[in-house]
Amino acid sequence: MAVDGTTSGFLQFCSFGTVWDSNNIACVWPSSTIVNPCTNQTSGKMMKYYSHCSAYWYCSGGSATSKCCPPGEKFQEDLGCISDGTSQCEDEFCNDFSTTANLSMPCSLQSSDCPAGTTFDELGCTCQKNSGEYNIREAFFWCGLDVCHAGIDIPFTGNNIEDVSMNRFYVEYDKINVTGGTAIFQNNQSHISIPGTANMPMGTDLYISITFKVGDSVPILQAVLENKRCDGAEEPSTSITVLDSSITGYVDLDVKLLTEGSPGQNNVKFTVPKNIWLETSIRYDGQTVTVSVFKESNLLHQTSWQSTGPVLVRRSPIGFGSLCSDYANFTGSLRQFLLYRCDMV
Fold it and tell me: Is 221 exposed, middle or buried (0-12, 13-18, 19+ CB in 10 A)?
């Protein structure tokens, strides 16, 4: 990440149970990558987990599963789980997802894991930390009858850009000025990304909403939102781009959503005004994609098309602005981004 003209490195850990795949540049499940700690290991083999002193990998048939020692114990090579007499692990949290929540949703019964270091609280209908700090950058979590919580909610308020949903996804950003509830893209290197959304399934119940304002000049295609790989190996499965229209003061807005059963149509184009706050939403229910554009709660445009199957998974994370050479970077402003992976009705 570049800060004040210098580049600094930040150590980040993958979510519990996943490993870093440098080829895909993403955290993935061991079974889906050659970076498998149990490759060529015998069944029953236990190996230390790199970021938790109370966790270990358990090998079975060449597959790796993350496991946790009981409370008060730590893992030691060749001995397994032993008593932690020094209490060195008291500030470490490990959850092998033995605690789950069965959630009754309007669309179907969902089962979602509580994040590492947390347990399910039936009264609060949420995952609560056991004690101290804990990692909540795991899977999406919803709860309650006829309630669909936001999977990602970035309001761009305060001094930092952060996800305020239950998931608290880590957000990377560079050269963004946040003021008065608005994220202003300062130059052609301004960029925001959500690394945890790389390889993230978006399923067949999806709602995305982003409120943005386009700047004065958009002579080259600009990406407001996308999960695109710059090497061209994969086109984005979801994207919102803008380009100067032939009509003065307007841009052509292109919105795309790709699913496994996408027919001939997978995108729509509208002509919208510049320098005005617009909310663009994408809703998919497993059968129909509906794209809507609002100006101050007034519907400007809406188009639907038929599509089936889950939204295509992409290796690249969801980002705002683009660092790819074939796109210019976004030169406008953002107000809010919302993403739901469940039926909101």
Answer: middle
From first CA to last CA, the distance across the chain in angstroms is 39
Helices marked H in 173-225 — which ranges?
none
Tokens of 328: 């210019």
Secondary structure (3-state) at 32: helix
Return the DSSP state at 196: G
pTM listed for this prediction: 0.61
Q: Tell me the pLDDT of the chain averaged across its residues.
A: 76
Strand pairing partners for 66?
57
**Which residue type does 238 have?**
T
Strands (E), 234-332: 238-244, 250-257, 267-273, 278-284, 288-295, 298-306, 318-320
DSSP H helix total and E strand total for the chain: 0, 28
Q: What is the 3-state secondary structure (H, E, C) of 85-113?
A: CCCCCCCCCCCCCCCEEEEECCCCEEEEE
B/e letters for 317-335, b = 16+ CB within 10 Å, e = fewer, are: bbbbbbbbeebbbbbbbbb
Instruction: Give domain limits for the chain.
Output: 1-147, 152-340
Q: How many CB atoms lie within 10 A of CB 67?
A: 18
Dihedral, CA of residue 19, residue 24, residue 25 and residue 27, to nearest 10: -30
Instruction: Kindly report, residue by residue over 312-330, the tens digit of the pLDDT.
Output: 988 888 999 876 655 667 8
Fold of 152-340: Jelly Rolls (2.60.120)
Residue 19 CB neighbours (<10 A): 18
Would the CA dihedral through 263, 208, 197, 173 be positive or negative? Answer: positive
Question: Three-class SS of residue 197?
Answer: helix
**Residue segments in the chain with a per-residue pLDDT below the cut of 50:** 1-5, 91, 97-111, 124, 131-146
In this structure, which amino acid lies at residue 342? C
- Predicted local distance difference test score (pLDDT) of residue 100: 35
Which tokens is 37 given?
């700690």
Q: How far apart are CA 7 and CA 179, in angstroms?
A: 24
Please report the pLDDT score of residue 87 as a whole number.
59
What is the torsional sign of CA 174, 176, 182, 184? Answer: negative
- DSSP 8-state assignment for residue 311: B
